[in-house]
Amino acid sequence: MSFYTSLSGLKASQTEMSTISHNLANVSTNGFKRSDTEFADVIASSVSADPNKMVGSGTVVKSIRQQFSQGNLVQSESSLDLAITGDGFFAVKPSIGGAQVNYTRNGSFLVNADRYVVDGQGSHVQIYPVDGSGNVIATSASALTSLRLPATSGTPKPTQNVQLSVNLNATTEVPATAAFDRFDATSYNKAVTTTVYDSNGAPTTMTTYYKRTTAPIETVPPAAPDLSSSWDVYTFVGDQQMQVSGGDHIAMSFDTSGTLTNPSAPTQFGVFTPSDTASNQQITIDLAGSTQKTGSTEILAQVQDGLSVGELQGVTVDEEGFVKASFSNGDNQVLGKIALANFSNPTGLRQLGNSTWASSGISGEPAYGEANSDGLGALMSGAVESSNVDITEELVSLIAAQRNFQANAKALDTSSKISETIFNIR
């Protein structure tokens, strides 16, 4: 009988050493939770047995209990790295179309080729959907959806109107080259570029060239300076020259005070087809507000009404779990809110490896919620939770397990010698 008692102690000590070894092996595994081995004594009894004379039959491993204490937080440079400070788990789906939901504390997330945010095993991070104002519209398990980053934002709008006001230096001389040539800088005085957009939202450069056609008028003081003059304005969108009614340029004129007198209304260019699209486009330019004063030539106002499609530039997650995306056109969108889950008995979760768990009958059903509510912890972006294994504690436990093993082995050896003594009696 003592053989089996000592054998149960050896097996229990081996199980404990295996648990400790597993803890130590995962000391650097993000989101890992250490386990403790718990034992119970074995007593074989009956109603007729004298309770004062009962001898135990050894030990048994009662449970290997997971310890969900907080691990250290390690800073990272990725805004998609998340850590939970407090209770809760991230919900992830191994298959985007499946019903299975797993749970993890390892918030080291990344973006896959399909722009879904996933963990290291490719499981999709689950979020609550939001409306256009960024308000959560549902928090039930059935409302969970996989987080996907949009590639673009906004609806493109082709440029239809451009306002361009400049101050032209009144002392500027007439260009030396009489015939305008946009490739010859001596044939014009000033070039101004404006970014315009086609029907696809693609940017194109509109270049407006200013060429003075009348020389400055000299006056003798105390007479007021005469700032009257005329200019020709040529416009190109990309490599296409814009045409106006009656010619290929707009005639500008200023009165003696340098105030624009012509054109008195916006000028509409002819229809053209941008190089990157088959859709025709027509632009109207408004030169109102332009002046001719002494001083440097400068842009006074430059506005166009076209819109581009914004390219994704960055993603952030705040403490409440809202995922926000920013785009190159200035748009900002709330994509959703990170879903967290908790359990009435987390130690009953089924370990799946890769720092993930699944619910079980012992853990209870998941209770979904939002960060900082319903007993769930806060979220920290740019950080991950490391293992909660304490190396010193595990090494001390390993020494104790080794001594327990040696003691049981000694008991087994003693029982063997006693049996040998009995066998040698003659």
Report on this structure.
With 426 residues, the chain is mainly β. The chain folds into 3 domains: 104 residues, no CATH class; 151 residues, no CATH class; 144 residues, Flagellar hook protein FlgE (Tick-borne Encephalitis virus Glycoprotein, domain 1, Sandwich). It has 2 helices and 31 strands. Strands 5, 6, 9, 10, 11, 23, 24, 25, 26, 27, 28 and 29 form a 12-stranded antiparallel sheet that branches. Strands 13, 14, 15, 16, 17 and 18 form a 6-stranded antiparallel sheet that branches. Strands 12, 19, 20, 21 and 22 form a 5-stranded mixed sheet that branches. Strand 7 and strand 8 form a beta hairpin.
Assign the structural class, choosing from mainly alpha, mainly beta, alpha/beta, alpha+beta, or little secondary structure: mainly beta
**Dominant shape:** rod-shaped
The major pleated sheet works out as: 12 strands, antiparallel
What does the average pLDDT come to?
A: 91
* Radius of gyration based on Cα positions: 39 Å
Q: Please estimate the helix content.
A: 10-25%
